[in-house]
Amino acid sequence: MQKVLFVLGSCLAVILFLLPYCYEHVKAALEQEPVLTSESGDTIHDIAQLAPPRNFHLKGDDRAKSVPVLLYHRILASHELAPTHYGADGTLSSTLITADQFKKQMNYLQANHYTTLSLSEFKAFMISGEPVPEKSVLITFDDGHKDNMVHAYPILRKNEQRAALFLITSEIRRSKEGYYPEKVQFASAPELETAADVFDYASHTHDYHQTDQQNAAFLVSRTEKEIVEDLNYSIAMLGGAEALAYPYGEKDRESVHAARKAGFQLGFSVNSGTAVPGKKLMEIPRNVIQSTTSMEDFIYLIEQNSK
Q1: Distance CA 145, CA 274 (A)
Q2: Residue 21 — very low, low, confident or very high, per pLDDT cuts 50/70/90?
Q3: What is the pLDDT of residue 40?
Q4: In this structure, what DSSP letter does residue 47 have?
Q5: pLDDT tens digits, residue range 80-120?
Q6: Residue 124: which residues within 8 A CB-CB, separation 6 or more?
Q7: Of 187, 147, 194, 159, nearest in space to 171 by CA
Q8: Cα separation of 47 and 207, whole Å?
Q9: Where is the NodB homology domain (predicted)?
């Protein structure tokens, strides 16, 4: 009898230990809301509401000849880092940086009088050659992670800095949900609307941030017709969009043609370099900021590419 009671007691202790963990995960599952759909007329942020480019009133010597573009993905506080954020070799995911790192980088740009361009200002610079300040930079984020709203948005807003967010529109939730940093979560429509004073929204495809069974990105393994259909869906969800970031940076002649056919005027890659007006408009270079990017690396990158 004592043995039976001991076994029952042990089972009860295990259940009580796991109960809080199970509750949080069940709660997270219950909080999952339907995603937005273009069939129901849902849109994220009407592109017509984007602020027009500023008139910088620049002299010849004050104008930028090129602009560095920065690429971020996830931003997490140090205390939020979990085993899921590390690879098998124990290193932090390359597409993730801490909020402290991001804050230091943005504060450096502010302290050194760099102008963070809006997407409309960058577009005018690239396509029409409209002047922007010599020390200009475009900050971009890919995917549309919820942690961008939690950590990046307040820092950028406090510094009065702009950024562009390339959204996987099939991942956008209709309603705001709880924040679970150990998981991969995406921003909701209400969060994106609130953050529109900092972020301009563009496309990272609708549902083509995937690879096929041969590990080929959908943008290079699907037909032009299929790609255009996906991109049109994304544009409809955004209420209009003229800029596309290629998932995984993968593209080919057919996918670029499909992007142009869908109406995109700018295409963003993951190749390092600096953006020059009128050049490589559908493969604009972006400098990926990784977990291993030191402050010295960041400063060097900015200074070398701001001409």
Answers
A1: 25
A2: very low
A3: 56
A4: G
A5: 999 999 999 999 998 999 999 999 999 999 999 999 999 99
A6: 53, 130
A7: 187
A8: 20
A9: 135-307
